[in-house]
Design brief:
This protein has eleven helices and 13 strands. It is α/β, with parallel strands linked by helices and about 240 residues long.
């Protein structure tokens, strides 16, 4: 199972959120590159880079941060936020993103998103399907929809989707534990789908429980920044695996 630290970037700085709400007092002191290098030095191979400015503006913005990380580490970066056009996808790949995640475009332009899966490959396109009270949220989690998670995932699963990242927004940043039942349900309902669990991870015990459920990867952020998960624990888990 992959451990995937998540770096949310706003104005070039790492920041955190609580249930999808970002505030100035949640900005972390370390630069994204410094944090990424620490993860790489302790055995992490993949990270997620969330472009919060891009999610707000509708096109990718923080590609200089992507370039810094891919240029100075061997990390495989999944880039998310503001990816709405072929140009956005190509720009992310130009600056060496290993893969991209998209949510909003998968709701509003299904044909284009399916084309991305076919054109760029199943390994490079992840569906971000994040929910609040069971319904998909888009636009950096700021816009609601009337689309239920299962029907949304089923549409793309039937069209070749391989990777799914789902966050229960109610659990994001509050350190109350992941939605274990949600991920167990998704894995059983969609055989062959590689599920990334995100939101609510408190500690290594949560990570081990998610591994037992069978998720492909665990995405975490706040738990690391607040010392609930340490670099030593990360390194120890990876070495044992």
């Amino acid at each position: 199972m992959l451990l995937v630290p998540s770096l949310s970037i706003k104005k070039g700085l790492c920041t955190g959120s609580k249930q999808g709400v970002y505030s100035e007092d949640s900005v972390y002191n370390e630069s994204p590159l410094t944090v990424a290098q620490k993860f790489a030095d302790h055995g992490i191979t993949h990270i997620q880079l969330i472009d919060l400015d891009g999610a707000n503006e509708g096109n990718i913005v923080n590609y200089p941060t992507l370039e810094l990380i891919t240029g100075h580490t061997n990390l495989k970066v999944n880039y998310a936020g503001g990816i709405h056009t072929d140009g956005d996808v190509l720009k992310a790949f130009e600056f060496k993103a290993d893969s991209i995640s998209a949510a909003t475009i998968a709701v509003y332009n299904k044909d284009l998103y399916v084309n991305w899966i076919m054109s760029y490959g199943r390994e490079r396109v992840t569906l971000a399907a994040d929910i609040l009270d069971g319904y998909i949220r888009v636009g950096g989690w700021q816009k609601d929809t009337k689309i239920k998670l299962d029907e949304h995932v089923e549409y793309y699963h039937d069209r070749g989707l391989k990777y799914l990242k789902t966050t229960d927004i109610n659990r994001e940043g509050v350190l109350e534990g992941p939605s274990f039942e949600l991920y167990d349900h998704l894995i059983k309902k969609f055989p062959g789908l590689k599920v990334f669990a995100s939101g609510g991870v408190r500690n290594m015990e949560d990570i081990k429980q998610l591994e037992d459920i069978g998720v492909h990867g665990v995405i975490f952020g706040r738990a690391y920044h607040e010392g609930k998960i340490t670099l030593h624990e990360i390194e120890s888990y990876i070495s044992q695996a």
